[in-house]
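anyone seen this seq b4? input:
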Amino acid sequence: MVKLIHTLADHSDDVNYCAFSSSCLATCSLDKTIRLYSLNNFTELPYSPLKGHTYAVHCCCFSHSGHILASCSTDGTTMLWNTHNGQTLAVLKQPRGSPVRVCRFSPDSAYLVSGAADGSIVLWNVQSLKLYRSGSVKDGSLVACAFSPNGNLFVTGSSCGDLTIWDDKMRCLYNEKGHDLGVTCCDFSSQAVSGGEQGSRYFRMASCGQDNQIKLWLISLADLLGCELKYECTLNGHSAPVLACAFSYDGQMLVSGYVTTCAFAPDIPLLATGSMDKTVNIWQFDPKQHFAGSGLEDEPKMSIENWSEEEVSVWLCAQGLKDLVGIFKMNNIDGKELLSLTKHSLSNDLKIESLGLRSKVFRKIEELRSNVDSVSLGIPDEFLCPITRELMKEPVIAADGYSYEKEAMENWIRKKRRSSPMTNLPLQSLILTPNRTLKMAINRWLETQQKYNETT
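predicted toks r here
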């Protein structure tokens, strides 16, 4: 599913952070430099490395357009760079000169947050390059930061374990102990989720820490002044501190690890990881791989039967059924047992009294069964859309020579993805041609399957 395709070994010290734009990869290091690479062939750009910081560079991030790169350092500054020529645009000095550990642009790039070792946090106006608002946390160094997708709020994480929610005016909305031994990273999913009695909308956030855990949280957007961080579930499995986590740009995957940094590329199936071994690894994952459930699981459809009890618990949390985790664990429900559950067993064996809750659980299990069934049917791979991994109804041929489900490919292009889902190369044309031959073959196969089912 995932393969290593390239290793960058230009830094002379630990790699602290990496970030993608639509065309570049930026990496920064304890060696005081930031390096920029083209995504076409991973060659370093002519004006790289960027030099200006006098001490270690801890974090770097691109503006929404990718035209500006921000970096922050132990030297107490956050620098802005022109990504077209590598020129310095500004040097923003943190109040009291404390080492800056994290920086992050707002989604519209109007503001830039910088968080420091003394707990100070500054919101900079990117257009005027002036300090807009500032604040601080009670304890610990600021080591993590993430903006909600709509930009109305951002979350900071500290070395003492606190997660703090701020609005775009730098008002502290909520604070909670997230990780006992300190937060190391946090990130938002781009996909809003619904929940609550009144159908409130939430954003899902992941945080990781020195306690070897990844936690998922829901943040309500209904009333910012009454904002609350709602614990969803804990993802266990790591046996060492989890130093980095990141959602994919579509919010369908979450990666975490004992590496100093990890980042997904936008619209391209690439993942970069940086480490204390001074290297950055570039990984390619299969864009055809489709995931079951909410997209938070890291197991493909066909392995649902092999889920452990813990993976079933994670699935329950992702479906908003966290209250049932204890019941399922007490009855040792793993993936195979999950798929065999019936309405009768949910009521009589698991003692789930609420009819509505039983119905919801059963619907979710039926969805999982359909995922397993679609694989077990033995559908020829060429009949499956590379984007959705579902049997195609209206196959079309794109300029890259591959066939896709018409609606899926149109949605892909509509989201300004002008590259091939299969090769990642630019599409020379956006014209989609009906693949009538493939459609006829799929229909013949369906007829054969129907006759087979009628005789068995």
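The two ends are 35 Å apart (CA to CA). Helices lie at 309-318, 325-330, 335-340, 343-348, 355-376, 406-414, 436-455. kinda curious what u guys think
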